[in-house]
Write a structure and sequence with these properties.
single chain; alpha/beta; Rossmann fold; 7 helices; PGM_Phosphatase; His_PPase_superfam
């Protein structure tokens, strides 16, 4: 058996892609994905998906320390993106008001939550009678289930993946803060890791959590998932 060792030059080149310190290197295309804040209590009783529902006003006050932690954690020179739904813009504004400072935000339609079509506003308890497939244990529906008039998680992963590649090219070498949704962030992880959406649905993406992805020449890297600010 022959054992081949890489030359010192090759080993040194590979080290450029290692993450050995908490300090993230500048000049890398990096996405800071944040799930929006908790939505209003009555809205949570039903499937709201891509509907425009308000945030919970009490949580905006009670979770102020989390907004302050996010404001301190996020890079100061960054592009800010939100989905077309007001809960992402309101979350982004709360982070900026908590110490980050005002920054303009662009709307990125591809980062919206899964469209549940005719199932929007359906009480959670009534969903099972409409399903063709068994639901995912950590999502309302299977990744391959497509609601009438809506989209499956396969569809979500397709549009989010295309958007991430497009944005990575447009903002090469920059930091991008994107306030989005649980489904869209799981779709981003599926794209980065090249895994099936059914697998990506096993990730827990909590409200106000931070997920960091990097786009390097050699591919996507996942830096952190579901990091809760201040905890």
């Amino acid at each position: 058996m022959t054992i081949t060792f890489s030359s010192p030059a090759v080993q040194h080149a590979n080290q450029g892609n290692f993450l050995d310190t908490p300090q993230l290197a500048p000049g890398i295309t990096r996405f800071w994905l944040i799930r929006h804040a908790l939505v209003e209590q009555n809205a949570r009783l039903r499937l709201y998906g891509a509907l425009d529902v308000p945030l919970c006003p009490d949580s905006l006050i009670a979770q102020r320390p989390m907004y302050e932690a996010l404001a301190a954690r996020l890079p100061k020179q960054a592009r800010w993106l939100v989905s077309p739904l007001s809960r992402t813009r309101r979350t982004a504004q709360a982070i900026q008001d908590a110490g980050y400072g005002p920054v303009s935000m662009d709307v990125e339609p591809a980062l919206i939550e899964q469209n549940l079509g005719d199932w929007h506003n359906l009480p959670h308890r009534d969903l099972s009678q409409h399903l063709r497939l068994a639901p995912h244990p950590f999502w309302s529906v299977s990744a391959t289930e497509c609601p009438p008039g809506g989209e499956s998680m396969l569809d979500v992963c397709g549009r989010v993946g295309v958007a991430l590649d497009r944005l990575a090219e447009a903002y090469a070498g920059q930091d991008i803060v994107a306030v989005s949704h649980g489904g869209a962030i799981r779709a981003a992880l599926a794209h980065a890791l090249r895994v099936h959406p059914e697998t990506a649905l096993h990730f827990s993406i909590q409200n106000l959590s931070l997920t960091i992805l990097e786009r390097l020449d050699v591919g996507w890297r996942v830096v952190t998932v579901n990091e809760l600010p201040g905890i």
